[in-house]
Design a protein that fits this description.
The protein is mainly alpha-helical. It is built from 17 helices and no strands.
């Protein structure tokens, strides 16, 4: 295997910086949600609907991400949209009303989708220069950025720093990082032409595979979100865990998922995305099935950690395959759109089932999603035929 060139190494560091910034920017905002709600004197329902605008903007306007990458290239979309996203969070701290807050969040969701597509498309471009997997580690860097951003927001809230000053300072920091990174991204147009298919049936088949890849990514995301959103509630209300123990489920998930992503490239390069995704889904689904059956605190915490480890490489795998089928952001856009629909639908469904039966029953969505990955994994392709 040939060694990557110095230019490719610099580009990997630069796109990694953009992944870090993307993870950290809105993570800075989350710990300030209570302050934003209090400053505008919003009810829970009003604040929740404003936050929902973020997902709406990402879903609706994110469909334009592939168009932007085809028109301007992944390099420009990646760093410019990161700067625009940084500018967007400065407006959150100055939103004068519920309507303004929702509008800013909707724009932020769209910009986040553009940054996500641009960074992943450019990361895959760098990966092709390497000739081996690096996308998992880039997603691991995103996770590290999210933790760092959350810590920044929590620290700012802890010292009583005004939301507007905190978010403006964070935005400036990541604007400077994005500008610095832009100098080292790969120059010129993206290195793969859009593939055309003379037969309409073939084009529809390729788009259908991309949607299936979106379902694979969405399944992994549902497993993550179900654990992150409901894990602490389940541990405390149904298993009787102490408050301090309840929070350990989220920590176990995030730490193991980040570790799996940072270390997953070597495994994926050797065994291929399909085999690793299947093994990870089997590990996560089996562990969660056993934990729900045993209903013990320790076994549940271990299972949450194994869920994070098992799904760590699944979303990057789906993105890599989609980009190979429909390059220049088109495949990434389709995968992201399916994933975002699942994120809007899954949380209320889990809540309804929990109210009708129990949260323990509702959390069977995790092994069910793992089973869906196992069924759909052939769409990830066979590395021996690549």
């Amino acid at each position: 295997m040939s060694q990557p060139t110095p230019a490719a190494r610099r580009a990997r560091g630069a796109v990694g910086a953009l992944f870090f910034a993307n993870g950290a920017l809105y993570a800075n905002v989350v710990p300030r949600y209570p302050d934003l709600k209090a400053d505008l004197d919003l009810s829970n329902a009003a604040f929740g609907s404003a936050i929902g605008a973020y997902g709406f903007g990402a879903l609706v306007f994110g469909l334009l991400g592939g168009v932007l990458v085809r028109r301007w290239g992944s390099r420009r979309v990646a760093w410019v949209s990161t700067i625009a996203l940084a500018g967007n969070i400065t407006l959150l701290g100055r939103a004068p009303s519920w309507l303004a807050l929702g509008a800013v969040l909707a724009v932020g969701g769209a910009l986040d989708a553009f940054a996500d597509i641009g960074a992943n498309a450019h990361g895959l471009r760098v990966e092709r220069r390497y000739g081996r997997s690096i996308l998992n580690s880039l997603h691991g860097i995103w996770s590290v950025g999210a933790v760092a951003g959350g810590a920044m927001g929590a620290a700012a809230a802890g010292v009583g720093l005004a939301v507007s000053w905190h978010l403006a300072g964070a935005a400036l920091l990541f604007v400077l990082l994005a500008i610095a990174a832009s100098r080292f991204l790969l120059p010129g147009p993206d290195d793969r032409a859009v593939r055309t298919h003379s037969a309409p049936g073939r084009a529809r088949a390729v788009a259908g595979i991309a949607v299936v890849l979106g379902l694979i990514a969405a399944s992994a995301q549902v497993m993550e979100e179900a654990t992150a959103t409901w894990g602490a509630v389940y541990l405390r209300t149904e298993l009787g865990a102490a408050a301090a123990v309840g929070g350990l489920g989220f920590i176990a998930l995030q730490v193991s998922q980040t570790a799996g992503r940072l270390l997953g490239d070597r495994v994926v390069t050797r065994f291929g995305d399909r085999a690793v995704a299947r093994a990870g889904a089997a590990l996560a689904g089996g562990a969660m099935t056993g934990a729900l059956a045993a209903a013990g605190i320790t076994s549940t915490l271990i299972a949450f950690g194994l869920v994070g480890l098992g799904i760590g490489t699944v979303i990057p795998a789906a993105m890599r395959r989609a980009d190979a089928l429909l390059p220049h952001g088109t495949g990434l856009m389709l995968v992201g759109s399916v994933l975002r629909v699942a994120l809007l639908v899954a949380p209320p469904v889990v809540g309804v089932v929990a109210d009708a039966a129990s949260l323990r029953v509702a959390l069977t969505v995790i092994p069910l999603a793992a089973a869906l990955i196992l069924v759909l994994a052939p769409a990830l392709g066979d590395p021996r035929r690549s």
